[in-house]
Amino acid sequence: MNHELRILFLDHSAALGGAELYLLDLAPAFAPPGEVLLLEEGPFYEKLRVAGIPADVIAAPGAVRRVAREAGPFSALRAVPGLLQLAWRVARKARAFDLIYANSQKALVVGSLAAQMARRPLVWNLHDVLTTEHFSAMNIRLAVTLANRFARLVIANSEASKEAFRQAGGRVPVAVVHNGIDVERFAAVDPEQVAALRRELGLHDGPVVGLFSRLAPWKGQHVLLEALAELPEVQAILVGEALFQDEQRYAETLRQRAAQPDLEDRVHFLGFRDDVPVLMQLVDVVVHTSVAPEPFGRVIVEGMLARRPVIATRGGGAVEIVRDGETGLLVPPGDVQALVAAIRHLLEHPDQARRLAETAYRDARHRFSIEAMRKGVHQALAALQEA
Fold first, then answer.
1. Residue 1 falls inside a structural domain
2. Which residues face 38 on adjacent strands?
3. CA dihedral 100, 101, 103, 108 (to 10 degrees)
4. d(Cα 4, Cα 359) in Å, to the nearest integer?
5. Which is nearest to 176 in space by CA: 168, 166, 184, 186?
6. Band of residue 1 on the pLDDT scale cut at 50, 70, 90
7. Are residues 193 and 341 in the same domain?
8. How far apart are CA 21 and CA 180, in angstroms?
9. Which pLDDT score is estimated for 280?
């Protein structure tokens, strides 16, 4: 492993999404001498600074930031002048490094241009399933074209992400490295914290299920709400918030549904939280309800590390994490009745739920540790250097 490789990690986002949490765990293995470069200042930058990870910001012009996943050609064309200027500024910084490591799709666009200007190799970490359920056809074509033309290597977070990239025309070498989670964050939770938080949230003594993800239509929170309507004794906490405009509208429909008489006072919207390990140990079941293929499924692993039984939808990276009936339960995406049956089964069979949770905990510690993730990236980059 080459610990002296100078990597410029590039990420477009100021928010703490799954890709940013991944980078927060990966970067300490390389920085210093590496550094994280963001295209926007915000909570992620502050987290990096607090963690002692070298970080800098080169602010992207507004026209570049406003290009959305579903963008059409006109908004993309408006962004071109600002994009070229931004890439030039990134390239000037990149000349002090051996490699540009793009950690998002927007970072891939900027990084492709900057890599050519700076004459540095480019690696893209693919955190998404490239299908039209998640992205516009134009954005998929752009990402695949740039990767094929400019990237020396793609690191995918699951076999599902790799396969979608191949189906979309990706030809560049791909290494699969699953995300790693900080095991110790979940081992250090004090039971008194859990009890105090339950009182603070005003939860009554009945069972609680937890759904941990940003509020977005494809994440399927609406499926859980309809399942809760048939489980009158069950409460839910929804941890996460909407990030994009269409997601804000979806979040409002969720809140309106939760205010209806059959769900009133049983659904708690908590927004983004830093105390996820405590919240997960507060719930009886962790549910994952995505209705489109999940690239990886970080919260599934977190639920396993919290020693909680997990129900996940069958598809995408989730099937690489959960062995149905052994380390959790899998249900068809969007199937309210299947979710109702799975939640009811775990609540009515606590001994089986505990066995599932313990088996899943041991499996997650072994397969999805930060150490395993860092080792996988080191090996992929070492192979690239030797090629």
1. no
2. 11, 57
3. 50
4. 38
5. 166
6. very low
7. yes
8. 10
9. 96
Residue 123, burial from CB neighbour count under 10 angstroms (0-12, 13-18, 19+): buried
Pair (316, 380) in one structural domain: no
Residues 6+ apart with CB under 8 A from 200: none
**pTM (2 decimals)?**
0.85
Cα gap 291→335, rounded to integer Å? 9
User: How is residue 326 written in tokens?
Assistant: 């052994």
CATH classification at residue 252: 3.40.50.2000
The residues, any chain, with a CB within 8 Å of residue 155's CB and separated by 6 or more, are 123, 124, 125, 126, 174, 175, 176, 177, 377, 380
Query: Does residue 361 contact residue 353 with C-beta atoms inside 8 Å?
Result: no
List all residues 6 or more positions away from 44 whose beta carbon is below 8 Å from its beta carbon: 11, 13, 14, 15, 16, 20, 24, 38
User: Tokens representing 372?
Assistant: 């395993």
C-alpha distance across the termini of the chain, in Å: 15
Q: What is the pLDDT of residue 69?
A: 44
DSSP state for residue 8 in the 8-state scheme:
E
pLDDT digits (tens, 9 = 90+) for 166-205: 999 999 999 999 999 988 888 888 889 899 999 999 998 8
Q: Count structural domains, the chain.
A: 2
Q: Does residue 200 share a domain with residue 116?
A: no
Q: Is 246 helix (H, G, I), strand (E, B) or coil?
A: helix
> Among the residues of the chain, which ranges form H helices?
18-26, 43-50, 62-65, 73-94, 105-118, 137-150, 159-167, 183-187, 191-201, 221-228, 245-258, 276-282, 298-305, 318-321, 336-348, 350-367, 370-386
Angle at 59 between CA 50 and CA 104, to 5 degrees: 75
Chain CA centroid to CA 205, Å: 31
Does one domain contain both 348 and 375?
no
Q: Who contacts 9 (Cβ-Cβ below 8 Å, separation ≥6)?
A: 23, 26, 27, 30, 31, 34, 35, 36, 37, 101, 103
Q: How many alpha carbons fall within 13 Å on the CB side of residue 353?
A: 18
Q: What SS3 class is residue 208? A: strand
pLDDT for res 76: 53
Count of alpha carbons within 13 Å of 75, Cβ hemisphere only? Answer: 14
- Please check whether residue 251 is in contact with residue 272, taking contact to mean a CB–CB distance below 8 angstroms: no
CA angle 304, 174, 159 (to 5 degrees): 35
